[in-house]
Amino acid sequence: MESNGTVPSCCLDSTVFRVTVSVILTILILITVAGNVVVCLAVSLNRQLRSLTNCFIVSLAVTDLLLGLLVLPFSAIYQLSFKWSFGQVFCNIYTSLDVMLCTASILNLFMISLDRYCAVTDPLRYPVLVTPVRVAISLVFIWVISITLSFLSIHLGWNSRNGTSRGNDTLKCKVQVNEVYGLVDGLVTFYLPLFIMCITYYRIFKIAREQAKRINHISPWKAATIREHKATVTLAAVMGAFIICWFPYFTAFVYRGLRGDDAINEVIEAIVLWLGYANSALNPILYAALNRDFRTAYQQLFCCRLASHNSRKTSLRLNNSLLSRSQSREARWQEEKPLKLQVWSGTEITVPQGIPDR
């Protein structure tokens, strides 16, 4: 075969495609890590955000941060190289971390919806309903369920069709799914929380509309309409992102359990998987940036850094100006300072400088 020195179009297209996918996945990972780091910093530096209400948001941010650090880089490498190069043992650890952190992230979203439901529907009893002990029990519940469906199930082979967690193809690394595991994991992790979240956010939406109608009799119509619109957009963004990101993945996940691990095309499987990962990048925006207290904390966090950088420059300028002023004043004072001559008899004679002593 003769070579004319040109690169085949198929290879060029493949290279461009891989570079494009690499850039997209890298940006997604960076957004996930940076966004959740900002949430953790905002809570740690702002005392007003250290409340029971924000415990689930912090737990969500920590979970998504761990997902971005421990899972997504290996998923990106695996996706771009089309093979698993880290061994079977680490494959089990990787898939277990993937399932555990994704499950914990979804259950944190579920707990946030319950927390907001209690705060809106019964604000007077909210301090009684949501206590530190119950919040701690809820967080323990989240991680017990997540660990049970991930590390325990995968390492004991509960998810495998042949009763073992070891795959036949060592170049592939993905969670095996049988009928029982697919249905249980899909029901507990997604479909049941989705059903309850739809009910809770619908109730919250109805209460927001009723409050807007009451405000309509007191305040201008435009203000009430704006408040109702903001509540609708916020709830629609929260539920819309959750459904769009996770519904395709769990639908394919349950279908794999019923039909077999190879029942879904690998390209479609990769797309729905990374679509679910994208929810971890959106959570800092949906559950923190849409919160007024978090927005204020973000502004203070970034403004403080900018102000500290500017204050350093300003302090250097002030120090230099003060130093030059003090030096000029000292020189002037030395020129005008009178000379004091002490006489042994106890009298003091003052002679201005520049006048010769006679």
TrEMBL record:
Q: Where are the transmembrane segments?
A: 20-43, 55-81, 93-114, 135-158, 188-205, 231-251, 271-290
Its record classes its membrane topology as: Multi-pass membrane protein
| Record keywords | Cell membrane, Disulfide bond, G-protein coupled receptor, Glycoprotein, Lipoprotein, Membrane, Palmitate, Receptor, Transducer, Transmembrane, Transmembrane helix
* GO CC annotations on file: dendrite; plasma membrane; synapse
Question: Could you identify this protein by its name?
Answer: Histamine H2 receptor
* SMART domains on file: 7TM_GPCR_Srsx
Which PANTHER family does this UniProt record tie to the protein? 5-HYDROXYTRYPTAMINE RECEPTOR, HISTAMINE H2 RECEPTOR
Q: State the species of origin.
A: Nannospalax galili
* Described function: The H2 subclass of histamine receptors mediates gastric acid secretion. The activity of this receptor is mediated by G proteins which activate adenylyl cyclase.
GO MF term set: G protein-coupled serotonin receptor activity; histamine receptor activity; neurotransmitter receptor activity
